[in-house]
Amino acid sequence: MRFTDPPQEDGIASRNGHNSTNDNAIGSLRHHQRRPTYPFRKSHRSKPRRWPLVLRFIKGAVHGAIILPVLYHAVFTVLIICLDRYALASIGLPSTIIPSLSIVVGLILVFRNQTSYNRFWDGRNSLNTINTVIRNLTRTILTHSYNTSGPLTPAEKHDIERTIRVLIAISYAVKHYLRCEWSTTTAWSGIANGSGAGSSALTDNAGGIGSFSPEYESLLPAGLEGHEDEGLGLPLQLTFFVDGFIKRGSRRGWFEAPGASGLQAQLNTLTDAYGKMETIKLTPIPIAHLIHQKQVLALFCCVLPFAMVDELGWWSVPIVSLVTFTLYGIEGIGSQLEDPFGFDRNDIKMDAIVEDERVEIEAILAEWRKVTAASGAVDDDGVVDAGERNGGGEFEPKEMFIKDIPTVVVSNGR
Predict the structure, then answer these.
(1) Could you give the dihedral angle defined by the CA atoms of residues 237, 242, 244 and 249, in that order, rounded to the nearest 10 degrees?
(2) Would you say 234 and 226 are in contact if contact means Cβ atoms under 8 Å apart?
């Protein structure tokens, strides 16, 4: 989306001169219209489609996966026509068998497509649940983690920031886990030593696809030792850090018993959503159904030339090709949606969604750092500004996302 200045009426400056009211109103309007929109900047579509969807045959389409079956059936139809006209007397079948067979094929394809789309939609909803839980945990931790006696200590600030980074890392860990992008224990040791050897080690993992970003590395706790080679998934391992922080926060008096229970319930919801995505990944459609579907689809498309050769002749070739293109296309879409966590164009945009989540949480964390730094600032007299004190004299941190407005003092008689 492009943001431009609001149109101004002719003569507004000449009539009003430097009218502060109009200038403030126009400035406020510009402030809201010119600010770029960063949320969903990666997962949102950035440019319009140049070609109508009906004319697209490569990007996002399944034509490449079904072109061979369509060609095979077209060649088979040509062979049947040649045999019917030049070799044999008549090998045609009555066309009345097509409706009964098409009902069976249609039901099978509908079941396959609906099942695959449900897997796609459930996977997207589970990913959204994980992002929502991370947002809720981030908001609650940053707003409730403070001491009533004064500002946070550097160790407490480090503990809070470390936990927030772990929450962001969980999204990355879930993405890599579902894509079988494994790490190794040796790889994590590079992070622990600060040598940077972890990046090269993670790109050479066995049994998975190497994909490791510096942003992901910076989110992981120092000294983390992975146990994926022993069967422990990293997303579940990272939840232990968050649960441990909830326990420490409860001891420090940051969270009361109901609040700590609510945070643990949110963490359980995250683990449950991660388990649902794991179920989708590890539970494919039964092989018996896939075998029967392929066989029925191939047999139906092979029967079509026999039912059309007597009435349509050579026109059977384009008709059979069109029917084959339609049926195999529906089956191809179902195959792509069966595992929605991959890299296909029709899969869930996990890279963009996870990256948008990281940018969002880091913006909140940056605001929290600014507020906590202001609450613990030292003035010229060496006195620590402890934020605000309520009626009982207890410390209350400043609110986040509130711009400091200078206080205007109005003297009497002026």
Answers:
(1) 180
(2) yes
Report the predicted TM-score, pTM, of the whole model to 2 decimal places: 0.76
The 10 Å Cβ neighbour count of residue 116 is: 20
Question: Residue 47 has what pLDDT?
Answer: 63
CA dist list (Å): 244 to 13, 220, 306, 380 = 61, 15, 69, 39
> Taking residues 394-399, what's their average pLDDT?
71
Look-up: residue for tokens 């002719």?
Answer: 10
Pairwise CA distance, residues 330 & 350, whole Å:
24
Residue owning tokens 């391992």: 237
More confidently predicted of 274 and 230: 274
Length of the chain in terms of residues written: 414
Q: Which amino acid is at 222?
A: A
Dihedral sign, Cα of residue 380, residue 385, residue 389, residue 394: negative
pLDDT in tens, 195-228: 443 443 344 444 444 455 677 888 888 888 888 8
373, amino acid identity: A
Region class of 196: left (phi > 0), else alpha (psi between -120 and 50), else beta: left
Predicted confidence (pLDDT) at residue 357 exceeds the cutoff of 80: yes
Instruction: State how far the alpha carbon of 148 is from the alpha carbons of 96, 139, 199, 252, in Å.
Output: 83, 19, 42, 10
How far apart are the C-alpha atoms of 127 and 120, rounded to whole Å? 11
Q: Which of 6, 300, 280 is nearest to 127 (CA)?
A: 280
Burial class (CB in 10 A: 0-12, 13-18, 19+), 348: buried
Asked if 146 contacts 152 with a C-beta cutoff of 8 angstroms, the reply is yes
Q: Do 381 and 387 form a contact (C-beta atoms < 8 A)?
A: no
* Helix (H/G/I), strand (E/B), else coil: 378: strand
* Upper half-sphere CA count for residue 200 (Cβ side, 13 Å): 4
**The tokens 């420090």 sit on which residue?**
252
